[in-house]
Amino acid sequence: MKEIVKNESENDRSSRRNFLKKVGIGVGAVSIAGIAGSSVLAASKVKSGEKIKLLSPDGTLVEVDKDDIKPASEIVADLKEEARAGLPNRKFSMVIDLARCKNARKCVEACQEGHLLPKDHEWMKLYLLQDDIHTAKYWFPRPCFHCDKPMCVSVCPVGATYKRPDGIVLIDNQRCIGCKFCMTGCPFSARVFNWKDPEVKVPEGHVYDPETNIPATEGTVGKCIFCADKLRKNELPRCVTACPMGVIYFGDILEDTVTNGNETERFSKLMVDRAGYRYREELGTLPSVYYLPPTQRMFPVESGLEDTDESIKGRYKNVGPR
Amino acid sequence: MDADNKLLKDLTPELEKTSLTWYITFSIFFAVFAVGVYGLIQQIDKGHIVTGMRDNVVWGFYIVNFIFFMGLSYSGALISGVLHLFHTGWRKPVIRIAELITVISLIIGPFFIFFCIGRLDRLYFLFIHARIQSPITWDVIAIITDLVGCFTYLYLSFIEDFAILRDYADLNVPPWKKKLYKALSLGFTGTPKEKKILKNARIIMAAMIIAIAIIVYSVLAWIFGVTLQPGWHSTIFGPYFVIAAVFSGTGLLIILMWIFRKIYHLEEYITKRHFVNVGVLLTVIAAFYGYFTFSDYLTKWYGSIKMDSILIDKLFTDYYSLFIFANYIGILLPCIIIAFPRFRTIPNITIAAIIAISALWVNRYIIVIPTLETPFLPIQDTRPDWITYSPTWVEWSLTLAGVAVFAMLFMLVSKIAPIISISEMQEKDENEIMK
């Protein structure tokens, strides 16, 4: 190595210096031109004075300067920013009472309707589980767990999925590149992929918002989003209100309250009284969904198979301990 | 000088004329490639539903091929890089092939990732929205570094050869080729100072590509290793994948040595000794690879962890023959063939190499797919293609297209650059371990 340095002639060193000089000047010129250009563009926004009549959300007619109306792309950007910020001072969690679930599947249907999902996409999925031959079979509704240490968020290479301060994990379908790393990262199989064009009809004038996540986009990932759009309007998620048995409680851990629409309980009391737990706690992802064990069931497990479609019954023919 | 002239006379005919067989073979590979392109168009048009991947097995053939092709790139890192640093003399006729394998497989590998990505139109998001915490970002950085490094290393070995070809008066090639050699040789005139710079550059790059290659393959292993999935969440994955990659790279080198020796009549330069030496390397690596595989599965099988037992069960029932082929036959057969002098012939060693890299591809398959078929929450579905993965014609055609492109690129390069490094063969290295 020393020999290379020693034999280096003045010519070599000065030609390297010239090259670096040229590169430096080039980079500097391009950046100055870029800054100058963008500031010129920004300064050229002058108001035209043209007014437009609009109907405001509370039913009054207002006149707005045409230039104050933002193009759709800017609105989407604002919505995405709000979606990442979330609702302040909240920590959402869900409690699912396994003693009451009888596979009515109203939660699945309401979710699919509300998010315009194709029929083979189930963000809320119903399993029939049996841990051991001596233990009970039970119906297991599984939404996304919105973990506090989400593996899916860790592995996303482009930050398309993110956890926000109020606990909800969302997906930005306009950023998702469809690598499916999040799907292999999630140990709970909570995510679905749009393998083809979902072919759903989107309502007129709909603007993309991660909190509604409509429409499903081909080549991207989807999952339960705790109906973030409903929460912003102070309404309960669709599966909570749709369940005829009141299986799903939803609420705020910071307020220590959960409700299934009819009954409201103190979250901590519910956990202690009914011995609440989380699925596969040892994985350490810290889910936001808690389960109440299937004790003192209201009705037998088999009743969940009675009024079910054949195509769905077939899913559960091999149920047993693994 | 007579030896040098003879070397030139033996190698230049391939650069000068192209036989009909070459054109026919190239056309066949191109046809395979075209079918693959058609499959890709179908996939882009109709969506990934045309593949066999579904919501549980989200990674199939494409990821298996990606890992496989990236693994082949180890031939350059090991044979060329390590042997270069150890100044082993016998490496000289085979390093050009090894380095070409590296660069070509590094070009093809990332394409299989592209096929797996749902939104190809957003591929550049990997750069402008990159999250450094994601193993995929580590992979992007590592692969780009590896490509640049290996290409530089290859090109450094080309410079002197192109200069020799440029100066070789008897070279009977069309003028555009002569101009190409002139341009690509970068004005190399063979002065002692230039040779010293080139030599030092090659030593630095040899060391670097060994380090880079180990990092690249470990990062690839950690894409699986850092997840919680049963079968993937294994501490051995980093070193295991590195060893497996060396295994496949060495195997492919033997196969290509055999092919080029046959079709370019290089029996004088690539001798049985080379086959035996690379074969011994293959055997040693096979032993390590077998050991790592065995220890990974032993700990899973012996313990009682339910998810491990479920996975082992699936491997020993649904994937039994593939498992035995990949992890027993694929290791023992090459070892036996090469370890016993009685079996050590050039055709036998080549067959051992073919078994080795087929076994390695199958090994990749049974690492990726069975784990995805046994998630924590059982797959409760009625559709058979959602329960078990079965690849479709699109995935098969793109796999074969990848092999075809590999062959075509090799065929094209062999028409421009000599397949044995002329400058290496001519070089008299003082520290050389003598033949």
Topology of this structure?
The complex is a heterodimer of chains A (322) and B (435).
Chain A: H1 2-7, H2 10-43, E1 51-55, E2 61-65, H3 72-85, E3 92-97, H4 106-114, E4 125-130, E5 137-142, H5 151-155, E6 161-163, E7 169-171, H6 181-185, E8 192-193, E9 221-222, H7 228-232, H8 238-242, E10 248-252, E11 257-259, E12 264-266, H9 267-273, E13 289-292, H10 310-313
Parallel strand pairs in A: 3-13
Antiparallel strand pairs in A: 1-2, 3-10, 4-5, 6-7, 8-9, 10-11, 11-12
Chain B: H1 2-16, H2 20-46, H3 61-72, H4 74-85, H5 95-116, H6 125-128, H7 135-167, H8 175-184, H9 192-225, H10 237-263, H11 272-302, H12 306-317, H13 320-339, H14 346-373, H15 384-387, H16 393-414, H17 422-426
Structure in a nutshell:
The complex is a heterodimer of chains A (322) and B (435). By secondary structure, chain A is α+β, with helices and mostly antiparallel strands. Chain A has 10 helices and 13 strands.
